[in-house]
Structures are given as C-alpha cells and as structure tokens.
Amino acid sequence: MVAKSSAIAVAIGFAAWAYAASQSQSAPQSGATAAHSLPPQAVCSCLPPGGDRSPLIIILYSSQFVDPRSFAVLGNNGPFRESSFTQFFNPTNTTPPFFQVFHPDFLKILGPSATIRAVAANPTFAFAHEAPIWLPATDEVTFASNDGGALGMSDIDHNNQVSRISLKEVEAAIAKAGKSHAPVNVSVTKLDLPDTIQMTNGGTGPFFGNLILVNSGRGPLPPSVALVNPSPPHNTTVLLDNFFGRQFNSLNDVKIRPGTNTLFFTDVTYGFLNHFRPLPLMPNQVYRLEPDTRRVRVVADGFDRCNGIAFSRDGKTAFVTDTGANAGFLGNNQTEPATIYAFDVDPKTEAFKNRRVFAYVDTGIADGVQLDAEDNLYAGCGDGVQVWNPEGALLGKFFLGTTSANLVFAGDSRLVIMAETAIYFAEIAAKANKLFFP
C-alpha cells in the first residue's frame, strides 16, 4: 500500500511540477524557487513519504491537489455528507480562506503568487450580497445587501442597501498589512438612491457610464430594470417595470450580451419566498430587453428557479443557474436543481436553445456567475466561489467556508467576492471578461 500511495502521489504531483517548470521558461528558477512559487494559500493534500523534503521531492509530492482518487471511494463507514447546505467538502480540514485545487489548470488561473483575504466585514449585517459592478473610471465596486434574507435588514417594510468600496483603499490597506494574509477592513459607503430602486438584487455594466440594476420590488412596488448614475445625485431612469401590464415576480440578475446593447435578465419567485413580494403572476423565466425600443420578450423558460446569468466572450453561449434547491421559507430540498445550464444563443432571434447541463454544484447552489477571458466560469456557491473550465470540469474553489452569492472581476487579476457579511479580495493571474459597454 505504501508503494501504491507513493506512485499516486508522484503522478498527481507531476502536474504541479509541470506547472512550476512551465513558469521557469520565462524566468529560470532553481528547484527550490519553483516549488515555493506555488500559491501559499493553496491546499497541499500530500507530503513526501519518509519526510524527505529536498527541493526536487517537494516539487514532486507537494501536489497542491485534492486528488479525486483520494475520495472516490469512502467505504461502508465513510464520512458521507448528508447535507450540501450545512456540510462542506473539505477533506484536508484546511482553515478558510484558501484555494482548493482539483485540477492542474486551476494553478494557471491562480498564478504562483495568488492571495485571498477579507477586505470588509460586518458580522451583524449582510451588506455584501449581490449586484457587484466594477467602475473602471474610479476603481470602485458597487454592490447590494441581502434583500429579505437573514441579516439583510430588509423586508416588506424596508428597502435594502446599495453601497460601494474603493479598491484603491483596499490595495493601500493590503500594502500596509505587508506579506501577511490577514484580513483588512476598509470603509463601506452607502449610495442614496431614489425610491424607484427597491430591493436591488442584480447589476452589471457600466453601460454608457451608468449602472444597470435589476430590482426585486417590495410589496406592491414593482420590480424593475433601471439605469443609475454612479455619481451623486444618482439620476435614475427606469427602463422597464412590467410585462404588458403585469408586474414581474422579482427580478434577480442581468447581463449585456457581448457584441450587442441588449439586456438579458432573470425573473424568479424569491421575493415571495422571502416574504416581501405578493403571490407570483408568471413563470420563472429569462427575458430579453432592448434598452432603446423597450421591447421585451421571453427567451428561455422551464426553470424551477432561474437565477444567475452570464455569456461566453463571443456571446454565442448563455449560462443560467437554476437554484430550485433553495426555496426560501419552504426550506431547502436537495432533490431540486442546484445546476448551471448552458444554451446556444440563436444568432437571429437571440432565443436560448439547446439547453444542457453545464455543471451540478456540490455545495449549496450556484447563484451569480461570471466568466474570465478564457471562458472559465466562476459561480458563487455554498462554500465560496467554484470554478469550471469551458467543458464543465470543476477546476477548483476559492474556499471561504461560507456562502457567496456573487462576484466580479475588477479588471485583470483582481476578483471581488460577495460573502454576505464580508467581501473577499483575491489577487490571481486570470484576466477579466469585459462587462462594461461601450
């Protein structure tokens, strides 16, 4: 058994060696330097047998992987999980936050110096829920608090909050902290938006300088799609607040299809399920909106609860999450979808066609989704952010040990992660997929 384990360790460690070797092509390194160039916060799932820690052996055995063969068979009395919502998959028992690596390609996304830490926190308020938007002009990120959920401080009688943080302030705080990965806590500034903006849950852009916010509505106040100036006094234009006279259920997420100025948004029943909207009037569906003409139509249906939405770089593929496993006051049901679906976008009608499973999430649900410049897909999940390659293979996780509902790239190599009562900031190698237009 010892020999077999050693062989497996060498096999899986070879990928890490290959990655380190590839880095040396542009900058020659010694064996020790190559070994230490792997991300310091990545999981190390195996060590050399016999305690041999010479540079070459460390490269071969410090695989940085949670090898699927190590948990493919747990045995009759194995530590099986009974809940995807309350039990995490963390076989190395590593303290979050860390990078959990399942495939060598995740190291390309992370780069050798990747770091992750909390940069803003308030344990009494879920201020960082969804709708993250990076503003290149000011290097800020705007976002919305939880609408109707635990610690959201919002309900049928109270609107939720849209806020911003400065990434210049984040980087200054990190520089002051030095080489430590300890958390920092920058200031969070509330945006005073008009009353037409009720229960913001999704956002993207900037779109011709404006934030695009989709709002769930509150009580009789209608859900809406709105353009909001990110600068005070935050002039607002509501583009849409009904479907031929009927209110939407509660709008959830929105994206601009690359190569167009067309908006696509999801509508779902979470406002009702979180006690701040009346009984639903329509199915859970994905809609297409032309901002200029205000024409709106359905492009996809048949969901349990459609939620996050994103597009590939070329705009030919759409991704929609179905979070049916999470049913608000009805509770969680693990036999319902926690699934990301992929669709072909019809080049003429822009309807979503050829629906297929892209990925099924192992922890919680996949909520908001984003893609990087290589079309790897990132999703906020029950344990943090999970990442899949374009073929749907799980590469790794930004393991937070808590729920993330959404995230956004703040330009290349910077990932801002919403985690309800905290915001995490990851410095990685991956490049961003452009979300702002024109």
Describe the overall structure.
This is SMP-30/Gluconolactonase/LRE-like region domain-containing protein. 13% of the residues lie in helices and 31% in strands. With 438 residues, it is α+β, with helices and mostly antiparallel strands. It folds into 2 domains: 2-71 and 92-110, no CATH class; 124-427, 6 Propeller (Neuraminidase), CATH 2.120.10. The chain has a 5-stranded antiparallel beta sheet with strand order 1-22-21-20-19. The longest helix is centred in the N-terminal third of the chain and has 23 residues, at 2-24. It is globular, with a radius of gyration of 22 Å.
CATH classification, class level of the largest domain: Mainly Beta
- What is the strand content? 25-35%
CATH architecture of the largest domain: 6 Propeller
Q: Over all CA atoms, what is the radius of gyration? A: 22 Å
Q: Report how far apart the termini are.
A: 60 Å
How many runs of DSSP E, i.e. beta strands? Answer: 25
**Arithmetic mean of pLDDT:** 89
Secondary structure tally, helices: 6
Strand order of the largest sheet: 1-22-21-20-19
Q: How many individual domains?
A: 2
The CATH topology of the largest domain: Neuraminidase
What share of residues is helical? 10-25%
General form? globular
Low-confidence stretches: 1-36, 45-63
Tell me the structural class.
Answer: alpha+beta
CATH superfamily of the largest domain: TolB, C-terminal domain
Q: In this structure, how is the largest beta sheet organized?
A: 5 strands, antiparallel
Organism: Trametes cubensis
Protein name: SMP-30/Gluconolactonase/LRE-like region domain-containing protein
Domain SMP-30/Gluconolactonase/LRE-like region: 226-413
Signal peptide: 1-22
